Amino acid sequence: MTGLFSEVFLSALLFGAVTAAIPLLLAGLGEQMSEKAGVLNIGIEGMMLAGAYLGFVGAFYSGSLWLGFLTGAAGGVAVALIMALLCVRIGLNQIVIGIALTLGLEGLTALLHHFQFSRSYPRLPAADATVIPLLSDIPVIGPAFFKHHLIVYLAVALVFAMGYLYRRTQLGLNLQAAGDKPAALDVAGIDVIRTRTIAVLTTGALAGLGGAYLANVGAGLFIPFITNGAGFLGIVLAMLARGRPVWVLFGALLFGVCLSLTTAMQVAGINIPTDIIQMLPFLAVMIMLVLFGRRASLPAALGIPYERGAR
Amino acid sequence: MSGSSSSSVAGRDIVALEGVTKRFPGIVANDSVDLSIRPGEVHVLLGENGAGKSTLIGMLSGLQQPDEGRILVDGKPTPITSPRHALALGIGTVFQHMMLVPTLTVAENLLLGGPWWQRPRTEELAARVAEITSTLGITVKLHAKVSELSLGEQQQVEILRAMVRNSRLLILDESTSMLTPKGIDELGALMRRLVEQGLAIVFITHKLKEAAAFGDRISVLKLGRKVGEIPPERFRALDEQAIISEIVELMFGKQKDDPEAVERPVRTVRAEAAPLLQVTDLAVAPTDNAPGLSSISFDIRPGEILGIAGIDGNGQKQLAEALAGQRAATGGSVRLEGVAIEALSVGERRRRGLRYLTDDRLGEGTVGTFPVSINFFLKQVGAAPFWRGGVEQRGEIDKRAAELVREYDVRTPSLKTPVARLSGGNIQKVLLARELAEGAKVVIFNKPTYGLDLANTLASRQRIRDTAARGLAVLLISTDLEELLSMCDRVAVIANGALVGTVENTDDARTRIGRLMIGLAA
After folding, report:
1. Which end of chain A is more exposed for a tag (fewer CB within 10 A), N or C?
2. Peptide bond preceding B39: is omega within 30 degrees of 0, i.e. cis?
3. Whole-Å CA distances, B54 to B42, B101, B171, B419
4. Percentage of chain A surpassing pLDDT 70?
5. B99 contacts in A (CB within 8 Å)?
6. What CA–CA distance (Å, rounded) separates B254 from B295?
7. Which residues in chain A have their CB less than 8 angstroms from residue B113's CB?
8. Cross-chain Cβ contact B104/A176 below 8 Å
9. Which residues of chain A have a CB within 8 Å of the CB of B147?
10. Which residue ranges run through the membrane (chain A) (predicted)?
């Protein structure tokens, strides 16, 4: 038991929490934008998988993590394009298409990976950390929070950028109007379809990036179904955050701690069945839903395709 | 009417419709309509519900495209392809149904539509709004959330928005239906100022007096067709009464008089009868943007109609909801037949005979997707004989619903039709049937004729009179002073959540109520 409370252990636990939180954060921020604009994006799990696969492939062949993030984001956008076409432009059911995209991408990425790498799981070299001077010297906290890949800091900065976008910009107003009263946006002279398309594609890019981070930095390799529900956790985060990006961050960190705990407790060899430990993150979801679920508020037009002049 | 400055620009159409036809599945909404809209003119579009006014507006504002015919802008055939296009052409519309985002503030709603890369120009807007509101004579809470404003206040914001956008053609779709008499007069004066500056206005209403008072040119629509037009030359030659009777001739082809003017039958309310409803010092705490109620006291005797007059948003809805039990009161007592009910639940108050007809017919009044039949019994779900052991008794429901449909003259294709597909007037009939059903003793009507056409307005008013005649106590909340004067025995005036005075409905009631409404003692 002494291992549990040592400095090294704690700082590794928190480091792992951040690593686990970043894909959730990116997915949650993406889903939040999509939901704000009135599109319930259940396909986000599929977008993350596309991002994880293409991100890994990009990084594996180019040797550059950054190129991997780029291809990962592009993969997410590619899936989001399908979603935007079918659900925003044509107005098909967002839930059905979302589920179809997720299932489709699960199969497709597993298949492609199998063709390419057969049963081998090549690894990427460990990601370079950007060490923040001074702050990283603080005991426990320093190594846990200030020795991450640069993209981690960028993702956290994105939280505040999003907050600014929603509260202070015209685009933020447009997005919210598209989700709460699309007809009002339309008669104000803004194209609802375009606004929602922008939101869905941004979601795709963020989810793809999250997937790429998960594969390239978090795991260092791609395995089929690697996202393991991270996209769905992102949906939960977005719904509980009531439109506030900073709450997505808190939620992601909380889940990150749980996910990290599962690994850490197994490593520490605590005498609890692994199955119970692995339940932890999902138990946390349920507890959060019970505690905050009733406070979730969703846009009025969420999930409803917009058709001009429809009565 | 129009000054010489406007006659130089007048004479040429800003926008013209030529033979415009629009079909929806099952109906022809507009059938070969011609319309000419000129600068310096208030063009009134008159017509009952379903006459095709809204569709016409939809096409002018770019929401819908005509199936046949064409729209000319500045003399050139121009398909108006989108709302943005309409705005760019200078066509601003205030829609009948609110086009505001409820979760955003008033300021944010006014800013909606700016270039997306820009920061919203809040300061600029505030200055512009201050300038406009000072000429409009209205106050607008820029930082209040729209969802917290009353419907009337929301409408003011919409009018303001069209002004902010410098439209050269302003379309007002039933914009006066939520305004007070004073507000309507102010809007009329404002429209006059605007057309004198060369603006064109299309003003949609089904109030004949407004049409006669504010119009320069009147087009009458009936079942999608334009059945007549009174051009400005003729308009100026006639006095108000002559115009009204000419319009009535066009619309109904029968009566000549103002059909809304109904002689108030003298009812004898027995003064010695014990009040059915006694409200004493009722108070409700204010919320951020809704006024609270304070020291509301009144009695209503059997067979009596007590009116609540006042400018919209002064606590009318709060009063109705507090009485119905939908809003928590912070003090005071409410007695029904002498029994205190202020601690009872909504359902228990209803069972004891207190009924509330909401003004929000589709929102809290009905479940739009449910069939007409079920909507009659929404407040009795689970109760025998319509439900037994938790199971819906379709036969019982349909039998009773069919009776109610007949009795209340609900025009519905079938009992199974989702209630939202009915017109406003028929939805109101469903609500009337439900709330006036067996056991009613006190009925609260909140704006019972808002948004209804003439025929349904008259029918609803008759229904309310009949209710009182049956010996029920009626509380009638309305912003339509004519309505109150034509029906009530007494009228109380509400301002800032308090009753500022009660007036017997005698000959000088109009002026006394008016004085109370603008803050002078009766």
Report:
1. N
2. no
3. 17, 21, 11, 20
4. 96
5. 181, 183-184, 187-188
6. 48
7. 185, 188-190
8. yes
9. none
10. 6-27, 39-61, 67-88, 95-115, 150-166, 198-215, 221-240, 247-270, 276-293
